[in-house]
Amino acid sequence: MKVLLQNIRKLVQTESNPVEWVAGRDMAKLPEISDAFLLINNEWIEDFGPMSEMGRINLNDDLVTEIDCKGRHVLPAWCDSHSHIVYAGSREKEFVGRIRGLSYQEIAYQGGGILNSAKLLRETPAEVLFEQASHRVQEVMKHGTGALEIKSGYGLTVEDELKMLRVIQWLRQTTPVCIRATFLGAHAVPDEYKNDVRGYVDLIINEMIPQVASEELADYIDVFCEEGYFSPEDTERILMAGMKYGLRPKIHANEMGHSGGVEVGVKYNALSVDHLEYLSDHDIELLRDSETMPTILPGASFFLGIPYAPARKLIDAGLPIALATDYNPGSSPSGNMNFVGSLAAIKQKLLPEEVINACTINGAYAMGLSDRLGSIARGKIANLIITSEITGVESLQYNFGSNLIDTLILNGEVQTI
DSSP letter string over 98-119? Predict the structure, then answer.
């Protein structure tokens, strides 16, 4: 089965020689072709170019679906490399508490936050978790997401962390979105271990990680490296244990202060360090000499009223950044990558081209997927957005309250969204 997109106003993020990521000044470059075509063969991008060259493709005797994209842009589907969308219920009461002046930490100390979600999750059957998460996946697809990393971390027991990861696997098998799973048993210290953090770390290392690995339930391992949660020393122990089972690190770092998470992440070649609301010049220098993707989550800054990560400073230092939603019930209850892009432009002064690169090729890298997703290149998977009629990519950030995604193609197939 072939699909032919014709009369594309702008075909955006095209590559002849694919790269793993883009950084620094290159983030402001966005290769595009005006008045273009793109040919999909099964799930792969077979060819693309200007309409004047479409005669070179051979469609003889093939069953072809043709889509007229006049006035529309075609881009790679968004790659959201940080989410927590498998959770039970919601946390509106905490939202009201923040309106009344409570901080994230104060809510956690009162039994809210991650521990509240853990309690709800333990009481919720896997089938219900799957149903709730499936609706959220459909929601993010409507906003153009084609690849999604999902973390565990609301179980905090062996049984419930495994339950979460099995639900993520279930989603992986039943949705067209490309999903990567991350084991985040070290998301918070459960009440039963509040005076024995080392004991909980031992549980993660000696029981959780071996079982996660034996069932092949995760691609990556993550730690919430923050004061009051897990120290750099705890983080190192957990990452080393995960790496023995082939789980590459990803780290929550520097959301609430200078946690030391960046140093640990670079030391252990983490695929990404995420949040980075607080970042020192030393952290930037460490990242400059690494293969670790700085991942920015402006939705959490918006919702919690905390500082925005210094995205502009990172790019100006020659580094790459990825943008992700942090979709979760407590600090960023939205999976809308379009809104994330608008926040990055409005609040963090990223150019539209930088936003697109951060949401596509760099997000794909932060999930270990840039060899197959995140750009328009021959031989890559056809995960594509067709926009409404827009004048340029800047329309996607400018119209921050509108969804300008008209059509989503995943694995070469047009989706009903």
Answer: HHTT--HHHHHHTT-THHHHHH
Characterize the bridge pairing of strands 2-12 and 72-76: parallel
Residue 284 corresponds to which amino acid?
A: I
**297 Cβ contact partners less than 8 Å away, ≥ 6 residues apart:** 82, 274, 275, 309, 323, 324, 325, 326, 332, 340
pLDDT of res. 4: 96
Q: Which of 37, 156, 186 is nearest to 87 (CA)?
A: 156
The overall average pLDDT reported for the chain is 95
Cβ-based neighbours of 379, under 8 Å, separated by 6 or more: 44, 45
**Angle (CA) 16 19 20, round 5°:** 155
Q: Is residue 325 within 8 Å of residue 297, measured between CB atoms?
A: yes
Phi, psi of 244 (to 5 degrees): -60, -25
Helix (H, G, I), strand (E, B) or coil at 134: helix
* Nearest one of 81, 192, 213 to 147, comparing CA atoms: 81
Tell me if the pTM is above 0.70: yes
DSSP assignment letter at 277: S
CA angle at 106 for the pair 101 and 109, rounded to the nearest 5°: 155
Question: 399 CB contacts (<8 Å, ≥6 apart)?
Answer: none
Integer angstrom CA distances of residue 295 from 76, 88, 171, 194, 311:
19, 25, 24, 29, 9
Contact 370, 143 (CB under 8 A): no
Helix/strand/coil for 167: helix
For residue 77, give both structure tokens.
């589907």
Long-range CB contact pairs, 91-96, < 8 A, 24+: 91/116, 91/117, 91/329, 91/330, 91/333, 94/330
Cα angle: 168, vertex 169, 172; to 5 degrees: 90
φ, ψ at 12 (rounded to 5°): -110, 145
Find tokens 């920015």 and name the residue.
Answer: 296
H helices of 175-275, where? 197-203, 209-214, 232-244, 261-267
Tokens 């432009």 sit on residue: 345
pLDDT digit string, tens, across residues 317-347: 999 999 999 999 999 999 999 999 999 999 9
- Where in 119-177 does DSSP place strands (E)? 145-151
Given a contact cutoff of 8 angstroms between Cβ atoms, the answer to whether 273 and 262 are in contact is yes
Tell me the domains of the chain and their CATH numbers.
Answer: 2-76+372-414 (2.30.40.10), 78-365 (3.20.20.140)
Contact of 76 with 147, CB cutoff 8 Å: no
